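The protein record passed on for reference:
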Amino acid sequence: MTEVKPLADILTAMKSPESADIALVSKAYEFAQKAHEGQKRYSGEPYFSHIAEVGYSIADIGMDAQTIAAGLLHDTVEDAHIAEETIEQEFGKDVRILVHGVTKLGALKYRGMERHTESLRKLFAATAEDIRVLIVKLMDRLHNAKTLEYVPEHKRERIALETLEIYAPIADRLGMSVIKTELEDAAFPYAFPEEYEKTVDLLKERKNENENRLEKLEKDAKREMAAAGILSFRTEARIKGVFSLYKKLERKDWDITKIYDILALRIIVPTVADCYSALGVVHKHWRPVPGKIKDYIAFPKPNGYQSIHTTVYTGDGGAMEIQIRTEAQHREAQFGIASHLTYKEVQGYVEGTRGGGLEWIRQFIPLMRRTPVATPEPQERTAPQWVKELAHAHADNNQSEEYLASLKSDFFTHRVFVFTPKADVIDLPLGATPIDFAYAIHSEVANKMSGAKVNGKMVSLDSALKNGDIVEIITKPAGKPTRKWYDMAKTTLARKMIRQALAHPNKY
């Protein structure tokens, strides 16, 4: 039985706390500990052990004191019957709003598809008001996923599947790769036990070979970087998550020899210019595998991820991936939106930098300007557009399965990143077509579409788009959607707009 995470650990994990922050978190810790006194988890541990772990996780990723306090208090209303008015009196309106947002999510238990989808809609509605609600919920789910072994068997698989299908992809879309991987690997053994065992067995077979290859690659990389005069850098190993490996094995017909990034070497440098210098050193010493170079610094992923990936032949009959990034890019790659939500960092970005792949964060905090700003109020910490779309989605009971299916297909599937002719990045689900691309741009463009060019060549409208494609939509005044378009479209948005156009042909 693990010990309850002490308050001192949470305070130590906080990033540059002021005295008022320490006082708020300390008070929330003691208040929650008393409120949950006598309550137990399935494991037999004090219920407060879960609360303390959630609070620590929120502090560890760099969130502000109000969010940490909300994490510590998130179950007091529902499970300890503390009035929300009491939370506001003791901890302020900011914390009360966050606790209320998370509490609403737990108000509907999983009883059939209708209750499940309504619970998810409540999640996105609360998140649309304040993105920090989702951070608390993710950390709550993460600790619950890590303790699934103690959950009754009839609940275990459902929670594990929900974690893999909803919560891990949410973390991914928020750029929180560390949390995504931890959620996936905690849930994987309980959602797909046979596939988990098969993946782990394959991994064990290549463990020593991969570790020896990485050790030599790292040693040689350090020597070559120093010889090239690049002295300010550090290296670290990146281990691919077991669930992520499983998904890739499925795409590679379970041939693990075709997967080069089970282990990867990261080279972390101070500046973007150093990234390209380091890439030159790497390619001078090791021959790159053709088609395996991805520059996410020049073209960041829509969730803000930036890094250069290159896979190189290691000279011993194998190949391995090397990732090159700056310290700032590294932190964002790990914690995504959470790495920007403290006031000090937001203000520093607003006043002191431009671009650098962080422009995407403006959609989360609309008040970000290049002038000093006051501390953002919680309602100003709004969510990205895709969260708002989910929050405002409505469906009757007969459409609950359709709603859940659209979540998985439109928002939480593997993504492709394609470009407009002006180099704007459009984020679409795997298998998306030019029709989906057109409606993602604007319905007025899509409804007049007569054709599409991909990488300068005309293609059929049912062509599956690939990462890096440059897509141009050809329009004509007489153009209009057809029933065939509906069958070709993959996204719920495109199908919805086509359905409307077909129902009201004179309007479009």
Remarks:
- The beta strands are 234-239, 263-269, 288-295, 308-313, 319-326, 415-419, 425-429, 449-454, 457-459, 471-475.
- Confidence is low (pLDDT under 50) at residues 106-113, 343-380.
- The chain has four domains: 7-188, 198-332, 342-380, 414-503.
